[in-house]
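Weekly sync, protein design subgroup
Attendees: M.S., D.O., the rotation student, P.L. (late)

Item 1: inverse folding check
M.S. brought a backbone from last month's batch and wanted to see whether the design step gives back something sensible before we order anything. D.O. pointed out we never logged the input encoding, so this time it goes straight into the notes. Structure tokens as presented (530 positions):
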């Protein structure tokens, strides 16, 4: 007697065929989906990273070329001014001052310009408010430019006189006899409004959170979207280190604040600066995660439908085995006659295959049917309002000219009240057939709501649309209809782009024209500009 309880316990521990099949299908689907998602994630991540690195490097190259051209132009501007000032010792002070003012204001290259003679005396300065005119130069950079007697571009430095972070450029001045007479120098104030701000300040790269910064030859920040960081020493940054070694490239990097970035970096030949364009990897990862989540949400409903079908089919497949198990369970307690044909599982396996194929076809058919139902009005078979709005938006984006004919059956409520809603539906279908037969194959007709209909006539002027509308109106009035009583319609017309380039405004204008037709006695067509 102790054997039976033990058999019952063993049966409780066994897995049913339905559970097994459902689990296997679920596991297969989940594993396949996981593999596809992982492969897609890695592929898209690599593609995004490679593309971003390429774009950042390309942007850095272009910005480097811009800065290089800018500094060459600035140096040429100083060279031209130096050629004008070769005889500065014989020039009146006012003429020198006006020349410097003209140079500074005409090009906007420099925040300030100074003329220094061979003794280091500042002969003139623009703007005069700096107050250094008539004084001797004191900064190492200014002295270096005087001693060098060649075109000179300084490293970024902080002026001892003004405390400004600046870059200094100079061009030597030689008289007609070849004697060195000093130099003309221009200063760029990096933390104030300057030519680089004008070129780069309003130049966002993209929506990925990308930004750029410029570093000097000593590793200090010269330009940054955060002005508080200008002048900061970031020479320990791994990308900046490579720039200081005059290397260009693109790579994944980590900045001094621990942020993972995709960086493209290029040197500027004219002054030894470096341009770095970076995009946070975090933003790319967030985008990828959002895409994966969207894919999961889209696959949730098909997966639920699939599991329902699998469970039902698994139960059908297991049914003969359950019957056999019940029969076997009766052995020993009563007489059992086994049914003929014991190959139920083969037959059920074949039926399962056919059922899955059938289910897949049905799902596809239902999807097509749902798509069709979502696009059409169930009563008239015309395009529905949602599809109409999508077509209008597409035409507006393509700048396609078209006319809108809005139609409203006159006194339709009285038809419903007098002949019943079934007759009203028949009238709507009758009118829909008239509209469809009155327009061209490329035109669009739609039931907009209730007894309101809209026709979209592409590449047609409001005058051409008027004749189409009149054809529809006359046909409805003259043709026999389901209620046996004359039915009329009022129509309003608007045209894109004559009246508007907004879908909402075009419909509103056509609607207003329609109601002017209603208020003017019905059974007529009015255009929006009438």
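Designed sequence read out in the meeting:
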């Amino acid at each position: 007697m102790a054997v039976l309880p033990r058999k019952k316990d063993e049966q409780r521990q066994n897995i049913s065929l339905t559970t097994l099949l459902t689990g296997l299908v679920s596991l297969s689907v989940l594993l396949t989906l996981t593999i596809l998602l992982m492969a897609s994630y890695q592929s898209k991540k690599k593609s995004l990273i490679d593309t971003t690195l390429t774009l950042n490097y390309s942007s850095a190259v272009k910005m480097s070329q811009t800065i290089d051209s800018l500094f060459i132009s600035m140096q040429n501007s100083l060279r031209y001014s130096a050629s004008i000032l070769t005889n500065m010792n014989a020039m009146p002070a006012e003429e020198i001052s006006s020349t410097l003012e003209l140079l500074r204001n005409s090009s906007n290259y420099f925040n300030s310009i100074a003329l220094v003679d061979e003794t280091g005396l500042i002969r003139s300065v623009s703007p005069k408010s700096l107050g250094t005119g008539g004084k001797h130069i004191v900064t190492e950079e200014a002295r270096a430019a005087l001693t060098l007697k060649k075109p000179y571009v300084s490293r970024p430095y902080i002026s001892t006189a003004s405390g400004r972070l600046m870059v200094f450029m100079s061009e030597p001045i030689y008289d007609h006899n070849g004697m060195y007479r000093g130099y003309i120098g221009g200063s760029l104030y990096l933390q104030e409004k300057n030519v680089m701000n004008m070129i780069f300040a309003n130049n966002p790269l993209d929506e990925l959170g990308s930004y750029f910064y410029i570093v000097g030859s000593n590793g200090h920040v010269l330009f940054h979207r955060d002005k508080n960081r200008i002048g900061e020493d970031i020479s320990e940054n791994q990308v900046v280190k490579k720039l200081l070694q005059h290397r260009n490239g693109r790579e994944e990097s980590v900045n001094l604040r621990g942020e993972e970035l995709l960086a493209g970096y290029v040197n500027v030949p004219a002054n030894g600066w470096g341009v770095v364009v970076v995009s946070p990897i975090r933003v790319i990862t967030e985008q990828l995660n959002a895409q994966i989540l969207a894919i999961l949400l889209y696959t949730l409903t098909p997966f639920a439908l699939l599991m329902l079908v699998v469970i039902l089919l698994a139960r059908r497949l297991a049914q003969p085995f359950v019957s056999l198990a019940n029969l076997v369970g009766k052995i020993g307690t009563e007489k059992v006659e086994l049914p003929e044909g014991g190959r139920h599982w083969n037959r059920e396996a074949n039926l399962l295959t056919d059922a899955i194929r059938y289910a897949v076809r049905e799902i596809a058919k239902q999807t097509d049917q749902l798509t069709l139902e979502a696009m059409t009005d169930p009563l008239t078979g015309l395009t529905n309002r949602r599809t109409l709005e999508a077509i209008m938006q597409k035409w507006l984006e393509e700048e396609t000219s078209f006319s809108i004919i809005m139609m409203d059956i006159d006194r339709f409520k009285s038809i419903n009240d007098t002949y019943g809603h079934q007759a009203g539906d028949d009238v709507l279908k009758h009118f829909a057939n008239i509209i469809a037969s009155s327009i061209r194959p490329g035109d669009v007709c739609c039931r907009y709501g209730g007894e309101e209909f809209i026709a979209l006539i592409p590449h047609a002027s409001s005058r051409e649309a008027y004749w189409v509308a009149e054809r529809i109106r006359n046909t409805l009035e003259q043709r026999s209809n389901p209620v046996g009583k004359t039915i009329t319609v009022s129509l309003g017309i608007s045209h894109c782009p004559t009246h508007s380039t907004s879908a909402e405004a075009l419909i509103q204008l056509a609607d207003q024209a329609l109601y002017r037709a209603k208020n003017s006695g019905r059974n007529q067509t009015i255009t929006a500009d009438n």
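Discussion: Residues 17-84 form the longest helix (68 residues). Residues 1-8, 338-343, 348-357 have pLDDT under 50 and may be disordered.
Action: P.L. to compare against the previous round before Friday.
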